[in-house]
């Protein structure tokens, strides 16, 4: 991730080239016993994330679910 911070957006390949490169990197890492190179898609809702514990998240999700059912 630190290496990617210095790459300009105009220097990155578009989909599907970047995606295919990421899959290849993940496969090579897994073959070497390293599992930290997988894609972690966040989607457009990522900015809505809020820092809270797993317990607080589950409590909130259960409350929201109960309000809608």
Explain the overall architecture:
There is one protein chain. The chain has helices at 2-5, 17-31, 54-68. With 69 residues, the chain is mainly alpha-helical.
List keywords for this structure.
69 residues; mainly alpha; elongated
Determine the number of helices (DSSP H or I, runs of at least 4 residues).
Answer: 3
Main β-sheet description: none
Q: Roughly how many Å apart are the termini?
A: 41 Å
Along the chain, the helix and strand elements come as HHH
Average residue-wise pLDDT: 87
pLDDT under 50 segments (min length 5)?
none
Give the radius of gyration.
Answer: 18 Å
Overall 3D form? elongated
What class do helices, strands and sheet pairing give? mainly alpha
The total beta strand count reads: 0
Fraction in beta strands? under 5%
Please bin the fraction of helical residues. 40-55%
Explain briefly what this protein structure is:
The protein has 69 residues and is mostly helical. It has 3 helices and no strands.
Topology, element by element:
Elements: H1 2-5, H2 17-31, H3 54-68
